Amino acid sequence: MKKKNEAEQLPELPCRCDVRPGDGETVREIVAATGYFTPSEVDVAVELVQENLAKGAAASGYHFVFAEHGGKTIAYLCYGPIPCTVSSHNLYWIAVHPDFQGKGLGKALMREAEKLIRDAGGTRIYIDTSYKAQYEDTRAFYLSLGYELDALLRDFYSPGDDKVIYRKLL
Question: Class of the 15-122 domain?
Answer without folding.
Answer: alpha beta
